Amino acid sequence: MSLILVIEDExxxxxxxxxxxxxxxxxxxxxxxxxxxxxxxxxxxxxxxICDIMxxxxxxxxxxxxxxxxYKSADIxxxxxxxxxxxxxxxxxxxxxxxxxxxxxxxxxxxxQAVKARLExxxxxxxxxxxxxxxxxxxxxxxxKNRTELQNSQELAEIRGNVLEKFSEDLRNPLxxxxxxxxxxxxxxxxxxxxxxxxxxxxxxxxxMEILKEVNSLQELLTAENTKLLRNYKLL
Length: 236
Hints:
alpha/beta; Helix Hairpins; 5-stranded parallel sheet; 7 helices; 10% strand
């Protein structure tokens, strides 16, 4: 049920408007001057406001100006009631952000048609806003996801680079031993020396195989998901 605020200083018109709107199942709150009306608009956040222009205290123009300054009430549809139908008056109200004008005296159908039209337009506008807001949220989530995936990929590439550099260094040490053992083996003059250098070659070979097994294991381990998991547990 839509909530409508009616601001009107003439009591009989105010009661008539309230009755017309309530017969159409609208919920209605009322104010007899602009100051009270402005307070109700900000505290109750109605779906639509019907406001007289010429009132004591704050005029309808002043009420509208204050409403449009506050982001919480800036988009509430407002229909002016006026006994003045001069072109300049209409232009002034529209320039301040009024949504419609109804001149006194008015027919009940005029009020109801204007109210329903403005509520429907406002509802469509809100739906469009919510749709765009949802699109924006989805886009932000995609950006965040892509940023996280990029970060994980960059970290994974860095980790792999560091691991490969370490393995490269580890592989050089046994290769140095192998080269030296091969050279010394060629120079060996007796069986005892040959056995010693063959043992060095065997140990270096074993070391190389261990390193290669570690490489294979790490290739399976260093996936993007595992990298994220290891980082979460502060293992990287």
